[in-house]
Write a structure and sequence with these properties.
- The chain is of the alpha+beta class.
- It folds into three domains: about 120 residues, 2-Layer Sandwich (Beta-Lactamase), CATH 3.30.450.20; about 80 residues, Helix Hairpins (Orthogonal Bundle), CATH 1.10.287; about 160 residues, Histidine kinase-like ATPase, C-terminal domain (Heat Shock Protein 90), CATH 3.30.565.10.
- About 45% of the residues lie in helices and about 25% in strands.
- The protein has a five-stranded antiparallel sheet, sandwiched between helices.
- Helix 6 runs antiparallel to helix 7 and helix 8 packs across helix 10.
- The longest helix has about 45 residues.
């Protein structure tokens, strides 16, 4: 027992005590090497310290922020939160893992998780607050991607369930329409109407099959030509385009085979064409263009653009174009077309982007798609 005590005492005796200055130096080193922003402020919200991570996360150097209000990095609509934070800290409360938005020097919004603690002087009086801010932007992006993926999966399951349920009655209606169309006892007008009925029921059946295909495509990917798909979509909508007085300009400058699911990519072009038509209720022009260029990771890609001379899309709405269930069509549309199209193109390792102008006399919208080409050989397809 005595030896044990002696041993412990010896260790304690040989352990040098840190001076106050050394302890402060080590603490400062820890703060400066932290991956999280560590910031202190007084009870008026004026910044008193700003570590290296704070410079990296928020974009402001220490000399730019020390002596400045913390409101500098708080979005205007959230600045009302700061007085409440200061009140809680001033009363001795600690705030743990509070997630909110902050603004970088370049204007970019970032998500942060804040832990805020009171700072006391040697007498125990609260003189300010110490804040640890962790950048959560990447985690938020992952979460949003998972949510979007779940929504897409849920939409697919819902579409597949609906399509499955309506297939049987559609087959029965198709058979009845066929019998009517070929009934010799009907006069010529009735047979004509029965023929039209058969066509429309066939279209409904095709839509049901496409809905099932979005959820589960049983076919195999193949090589296909984009101009051929575009012509197919344009031909299907030829009467509507003519009826609305819309001029279509085809500019197939060059092309190359694309590998994937032709039916899915065709649906993308159908969505873009219908959107362009909706933007031109009183006539106008739609320009469809294909061109091979080097833009996707330095590899040759096929650029496909669908442009219209409509009224354009506001900057605010452009930011939300590819969100699920977002639509600017008040009486029609479910806001899924562009979202689904983006998912299809990502599946094909492609990209889609939009540019639009609402300037009178120069208004219109362009959707541009980039798709990897299957073969390096490029050939002219101006027809």
């Amino acid at each position: 027992m005595g030896n044990g005590k002696h041993g412990v005492g010896a260790v304690a005796a040989n352990t040098p005590e840190l001076s106050h200055e050394e302890a402060l130096f080590r603490l400062a080193a820890i703060v400066e090497s932290s991956d999280d922003a560590i910031v202190s402020k007084d009870l008026h919200g004026v910044v008193t310290s700003w570590n290296n991570a704070a410079e990296r996360i928020f974009g402001y150097e220490a000399h730019e922020m020390i002596g400045r209000s913390i409101l500098t990095i708080i979005p205007p609509e959230l600045q009302h939160e700061e007085p409440e934070i200061l009140r809680k800290v001033g009363s001795g409360e600690r705030i743990d893992h509070y997630e909110t938005e902050r603004v970088r020097k370049d204007g970019q919004r970032i998500w942060v998780s804040l832990t805020i603690s009171p700072v006391r002087d040697p007498s125990g009086r609260i003189i300010g607050a110490s804040k640890i801010a962790r950048d959560m932007s990447e985690r938020k992006r992952v979460q949003e991607a998972l949510i979007q993926s779940e929504k897409l999966a849920a939409t697919g399951r819902m579409a597949a369930a609906i399509a499955h349920e309506i297939n049987n009655p559609l087959e029965a209606v198709t058979n009845l329409a066929y019998l009517l169309a070929n009934d010799g006892s009907l006069n010529e007008t009735a047979q004509k109407y029965a023929g039209l009925l058969l066509q429309e029921v066939g279209r409904a059946s095709e839509i049901a099959k496409q809905s099932l295909a979005f959820y589960r495509d049983s076919g195999k990917p193949t090589c296909f030509e984009i101009p051929e798909l575009l012509n197919n979509v344009l031909n299907i909508n030829h009467q509507k385009l003519q009826g609305r007085g819309i001029e279509v300009v085809k500019d197939y400058r060059s092309s190359a085979p694309v590998f994937g699911f032709a039916s899915e990519v065709r649906q993308v072009f159908a969505n873009l064409l219908l959107n362009a038509m909706d933007a031109l209720p009183e006539g106008g022009k739609i320009i469809v263009r294909t061109k091979v260029c080097n833009q996707l990771d330095g590899e040759p890609v096929l650029s496909v653009s669908v442009a219209d001379t409509g009224t354009g899309i506001s900057n605010e709405n452009q930011k939300r174009l590819f969100e699920p269930f977002f639509t600017t069509k008040t009486n029609q549309g479910n806001g899924l077309g562009l979202w689904v199209s983006q998912g299809i193109l990502e599946k094909h390792h492609g990209r889609i982007a939009a540019k639009s102008s609402t300037r009178p006399g120069h208004s219109g919208t362009v959707f541009r798609i980039l798709l990897p080409i299957r073969e390096k050989a490029v050939r002219s397809t101006n027809t």
